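Thread title: Can someone regenerate the structure for this chain?

I was given the following input by a collaborator and told the matching structure tokens would be attached. They weren't. Posting the sequence so someone can regenerate them.
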Amino acid sequence: MNLNLKTKIYLGSIAIIAIILLLYLFFVFDIPDLSLFLFWAVLSIVVESLLILLPHNSVGVSVGYAINIATVIVAGPLVATAASALAFLLRCPNIKGRGYVHALNSPAYKTIFNISQSIIVTSLISLIYLLIGGKIGEFSLFPTLFILFTGVLLNTSIISGFLSALNTQKFVRVWLGNIKGTFPSSIAVGTMGIIVALAYIGYGCGAVILFLGPLLLARYSFKLYVEMRNVYISTIQALNKSLEAKDPYTSGHANRVEKFAIDLAEACHLPFEKIQDIKTAAILHDIGKIGINDQILNKATRLTQEEFQHIMTHPTIGADIISKVDFLKNITGIIKHHHEKYDGTGYPDGLKGEQIPIEACILTIADSYDAMTTDRPYRKALTQEEAIEEIVKNTGTQFHPVLAEKFVEMIKHQGV
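Best answer:
Regenerated them for you:
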């Protein structure tokens, strides 16, 4: 994979920071007991090998954070950091469809990133632990809880920065997605690490081995959650593919509408949850066209009034389909009302003004703009200037006035 310049700079920067931190730990701290280091290193390698890939195989998570926290408390900065780095270097997870994956058959940039990220996070939380009063080999409540939360924030921030650079996405969007998806589980896993540390302090290595059972149970629970998310995404993709089979135009249209809608939602500073709903609704907003006659859907000339009446049923059909899927129910209203007009002359319910969900208003603008700027069988695409003129002309009638103004500003700024 060819990395863009921004990603190379980011990767190089965190690698340099990691080397500096590791050298600092080697000069300031030591490993008093080699057997202690080997015990925690092997344990870290084992749990990191039990990796769970998140949807799209872009990010993997494990219960290694528990061992990380425990090692910081009982063995100190150098042991914890070196063990964590070795875990990422020597882990060998079994990835579905790829078999066992290790450093030698993984892209070099991923290995460098994972090791650097683990060194930075572990060394910093270890140093913070000592700085705020924590003692190696003893349990201190406040310092432990502080690094538990700090570690999650550091980890998600570094990963989000990398994914943001790699995929040229906004950092805040990526970070919110990571923090929302992994924060509760990471805190829960980290809490297990506190229990592991207490077990070691009180009873030694044998007790730690016994506590691997609950830790692996936590991993299994998270694995079920990830598999459920995979089913969620697969369902969306299957629904979208079924529509593409009927109307090839829909594929590119849905992707473009998704981008316009998300950009507008972010420009309006909508909450993360609403933006995620808009994203999903944009992909599936025309799913109701599955119930529309193919001859009408692909007609090369303008529709008759009767045919248009038939087309007008697709938001209701789509909402009905979506309402049957439990995890999509919250976007039912967006799907149903994305053809409503601000002055109340839209369909299917003739909603007016603030009666229309803001997510649907955003989708209406994005959908209309892309439709205007795309070639259709019965007409040529409008230019950007012509489409903007149409949006301005219909502001307050078809389009939400505030959103329309924001969208026009955004398009002019982007030069799309």
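The domain at 247-414 is CATH 1.10.3210.10 (Hypothetical protein af1432).
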